[in-house]
Every structure is written in structure tokens, then in C-alpha cells.
Amino acid sequence: MNYIGSKSKLSHFIKSTIEETVGKTDNKVFAELFGGTGIIGRQFKQEVKKIIMNDVEPYSYVLMRNYIGNTKLFDYSHLIDELNLLAGEKGFIYQHYCMGGKSQRQYFSDQNGKKIDAIRRTIEQWNSSKRITQDQYYFLLASLLESADKVANTASVYGAFLKTLKASAQKEMKLHPAVFSESTAKTIVHHEDANELIKKISGDILYLDPPYNERQYGSNYHLLNTIALYDSFTPNGKTGLRTYYRSPYCQRAKVAGVFEDLIQNAKFKYIFLSYNNEGLLSEKTIQKIMSKYGSYSLRKKKYQRFKADKTEKRNHTATSTFEFLHILIKDK
Prior knowledge:
By secondary structure, this protein is α/β, with parallel strands linked by helices. It has helices spanning 11-22, 39-44, 58-67, 77-84, 92-97, 110-128, 134-150, 167-170, 194-197, 217-220, 222-229, 255-265, 283-291, and strands at residues 29-32, 50-54, 186-190, 203-208, 268-276, 294-304, 320-330.
């Protein structure tokens, strides 16, 4: 997926820094509270004895429940094949997010919108009838989210749709499996506010990758949440927004307070914070807060920032930025 803040290109840097700081991780408990697509958690899934993942966004929970929560392989080919053979249906996605539904929104082609509806309804039906297990349910949902995202008619995020169907959005959607890795680790996936969850858990390694700026993930990826939940609501405005969670980490007046609250309540020895030089919190503010609770250090890496889809006619100047990995060995 094209995902704002994705750590795919930085995963080696982050993992190696954590291992250099912590040493052997095979007997450690690892936790990640702003999981996103679970890229860093996936790096440690086979390296630790227990992994705790969390994100407040429904689409993220689905992805992590599959990629982290699923630890034993199963046969899925017959399920994927059957879903791909379904005829389209004029369901919620078609009615509200495709031009044929008369909503004047064009997030998907009519054909793909109907296909998403048919697959999503069938997955839910299979789950209700117990034809599939919970592991298979989240595997299929994750597969649908990623497959739908590949044919979305957007500039990578869902804050707006494009006026005409771009080339990738004109392709017929095929359901591709969201293949996960096996693991012997104990895995737990939560769907909670990070500052509330931190009071209930403990471990050795805490990795934090909160939002950096004022753009809310709940609005940027609202349509993925709608596919994940597949509930009934009245889409709002031109973009068809649903009611979404507004993170205090995206609010300049609140972010320092909630961040310190998180660090103060963390019952973890090693804490790693990913942040960049364009975030709401300055490097000095983060250092000041984290230094109150133990030994602080900092690692930096230059990289090219996420850019929107190049097929949209906007200014796409390639800009490099710095990723900061703030490190705290906690003693308070």
C-alpha cells in the first residue's frame, strides 16, 4: 500500500538500531502502539517471544490482525478463487463511492466498486456462518483492503478522488492474498487509544511511530475504514467522509502533553520513537521530555519522503527529510 509514514524504506535502519541498543531479542516482549500497516512489527514477529500491536484505526487493526495476529499457515487458495469469481453487487461502496451510484463520487470504477461490495458481503456471510475461522476472516479482509487500494482512483490517500479514472483504477480488481509469516511468538493485537493501552501493558521494547503532523489518518484513509467495518452510515460531504477518530498527536496544542503522558506511563525499559524533522514536536522538545525518564540518545537517517501518486498533475518535487529515531533507556 501507498501509506503516509510507511517505514518500509527505513525498516532496516530501525530494526538494526533497536538490536544494537537492546542486544538479543529472542526473550523480549516487543510492543508497537501506532502500528499502521505493521511494517516494524513484522520485522520482529519471528525475533521475539511476545509481540503486542495496536492501532486505533479499524483498517490498521485488520491489517495487523492478519500480518501479526496470524501465526500458522492455512490453505486459502480456494477462498481467494471463489471470491474472485463473484459477480458484482450494487452495495454500499458502489452506491456512495462510484459514479454509477449517483453520489458524484469516483473513488472506484463502477465495476470495481460492485466487486468490492460482493466480496465484502460474502466474507461477512462466511464469518457469520462459521465457514471460516477468525484467522481466515482477517486474512481475507486484509487481502481485500490491499487489493481495493491498488485500484483506488485517488492520489494515494482518500482525502479526495480524481475527476477522471486513472490507468490503475481502470484495471479490474483481483483479490490477491495478504500472505503472512509463521511465528512461535505469542501475538496480541489491540484496537485502542495508545495512551489508554499503555497503562495496561508492559514489556521490554516499546516502538512508537505516532502521527507527525495535523493530517488525521482517520480522514486520509476513511474509505479503508468503511470497507473494514462495512457498516451503515450517511457519508458526509463531497468526499463521503465518515465520523472518524481525531488523534491528539495531530493537534499542536495537545501533542506534547499526550506524548509525555505516554512516556511516563510506559512500563518498558527500551523506548524508541520514530519522528521526522517536519513534525509538530521539535527535536529539542522530544529530547527534553524523554530525558526526564532515563538515558536519552538520538539516531538520524536521511531519506526521501512519501509522495502522492505521480499520475496526478500536481507538484511532486522529490524532497528529502530526516527520520529521527529517539532512544530512551528508561529508569523512572
